[in-house]
Amino acid sequence: MSPVPGLQTVGLLGGGVIGGGWAARFILNGVDVKMYDPDPEAPRKVGEVMANARRAMSKLYMPSLPAEGTLTFVDTPEEAATGVQFVQESAPERMELKQMLLGRASAVAAPDVVFGSSTSGLLPSVMQEGMTHPERLVVGHPFNPVYLMPLVEICGGSLTSEATKQRAAEVYEAIGMRPLHLDVEIDGFVADRLMEALWREILWLINDGVATAEQIDDAMRFGPGLRWSFMGTMLVYRIAGGEPGMRHFMAQFGPALKWPWTKFMNVPELTDELLDTIVSQSDTQAGTATIRELEMLRDDCLVAVMQGLRTADYGAGQVLANFERTLFERMGDTATEPDFGGPLRLHEVRVPTDWVDYNGHVNDSRYFQLSSETIDRLLRLIGMDEAYLAAGHSWFTVESHVNFAAQAKAGDHLYCTVQLISHDAKRMRLFTSMHRADDHSVVATAEHMLLHVDTNADKAVPAAAEMTAVLDRIAAQHSTLPAPTNAGRSVGQAKN
C-alpha cells in the first residue's frame, strides 16, 4: 500500500527534465508511476534523473524513505490516465500539444482524477478547452530539480473548482512539497515572472559588455542570493529600512526606481554574436564538468542549504522538517511488530550535515539524540502513545552512558537497535547500538536507565499492566541473548 493516502498510482504525461523529476519525487515516496513519452530515449533519460534523485534524497532526509514505487512506460496518453488517482502533465510548452494530451487523457480518466499541469506560464483557462470535466485541471508549476525543490505554484483556470485546487495541494504536500496558491491567473505566474525580470537584466549586462556570466553568478551567490534563499525579497527590503521598516526603505530608495539602473522593459536582440558570447562564457564557467556532474553539485548544495535552514525551522527548512515528521509517522503507522528474538531494529537515519562538528564527524551529542529517538520508538511499541501521556504517565531517563566505537559522517546511513537488559514495574535498563547500514559496523553504543513516572505527582509509579505485559514478552526473548560487550561499563573502562 502506498504511504501517501489515497494515492497508489499517478499518470505522468511527459518524461523530460520536469517529468523525470516528478517521476522521481513520486516513486521515491512509494507511489507507482505510469509514464507516457513518445521519445525512445525517455527510459534512459528518466533513469538518469532517478539515479540523481536517489542520491540526493537519501542525503536530504533523516528518516528512511519508503519502499520505492514502480515505473511503467506506456504507449498512449490514455494508458497513462487509466487506473490512476492523479495525473501530472509536463509536455513541452506548446498549447496545442498540451490541449491534445489533456483532452485524450481526460476522456478516459475517472471523473474524480485531478490533472496538474507543470506549465511555466500558459494559462490554465485555455488549456482546459477540450477536456472532459475541465473543472479538474489546475496548474501545479514545479521548479527544477522537482525531486528537491519544494515550491509548486497552484493556479486554477476559469473552470477549475476549489476542490481541485485543494486535492492538488494535498497530493503535493504528501510528497514533501510546499504549495503556493495563486489567486490571479496570469502569464508566467509569480516566480517565473520574477526570474524573467532578472534574466532580462542579465542579458543586457552581457550584451553591453558590463559583466561576464561568471561575474553575474558570483554577484548573486555571494550576495543577495544567500538572503533570498530563506527570507525572500520583501522582508529583506523591510529590514533594510531599519527600525522604521518598509515605509522608510521606500522613502529612501523609492526615487532610485526612476534612475536608469535596469532595462527590465526591454530585451536585447538575441543576435548570433550575443548567443555566441553567452555560450562561450557559460562553457568557460563550467570547465570540464558534465551536465550530470553539475546536477550533482547543485543537488548537494541544495541539500546543504535546506538542512541548514532546518535548524532555524524557517523557509524551505521548515518544509523539510515537517515532511520528515510525516515520514517518521508513516514509518510508525505502517510498521509491523518486530521479531522480539533479537535486538529490535527500530530506527534509521541518514546523517544530516548539521550533525557534523569541526572535525567532520558526527558530534557526540547526536549519538545521545539518536539513542533517545530509538528508545522513543520502543516506548511507542510498548504502548506509550499520546493518550498515555495525556493521562499523566511517561518514562523518564535517569542515567545514560555512551561509548563511541567509530566515526560517522554526513550522509552516512545509520540504523539503531535496542536490547532490554532488565525491567520491573517501575524501571527499564536498555542498551542501544548504532550501526552503519552498509557494513553493519558499530559506531556507538549507549546504556540507559528509565523510570516510569506519574507526571502529575512527579514520582515513580508502576507502569500500566498492558505495558508491563509487552515488556515481559520482550524480556522472555532478550533474556536468552548474550550480554552486550559494553553493558555495565563505567567511564575509564573502555578498551585502548
Indicate how many domains the architecture comprises: 3
How many helices in DSSP terms? Answer: 17
Return the CATH topology of the largest domain.
Rossmann fold
Main sheet? 8 strands, mixed
Mean pLDDT: 91
- Beta-strand segment tally: 14
- How far is the first residue's CA from the last residue's CA? 49 Å
| Helical coverage, percent range | 40-55%
* Global structural class: alpha/beta
- Relative strand content: 15-25%
Layout of helices and strands, plus pairs?
Blueprint: E1 9-13, H1 17-27, E2 32-36, H2 42-60, E3 71-74, H3 77-80, E4 86-89, H4 95-108, E5 114-117, H5 124-127, E6 137-141, E7 151-156, H6 162-174, E8 178-181, H7 191-207, H8 213-221, H9 224-231, H10 234-240, H11 246-253, H12 272-286, H13 291-312, H14 316-334, E9 344-350, H15 364-381, H16 386-390, E10 393-404, E11 413-423, E12 427-436, E13 442-454, E14 459-460, H17 465-478
Parallel strand pairs: 1-2, 1-4, 2-3, 4-5, 5-6, 7-8
Antiparallel strand pairs: 6-7, 9-11, 10-13, 11-12, 12-13, 13-14
Helix pairs in contact: 1-2, 2-13, 13-14
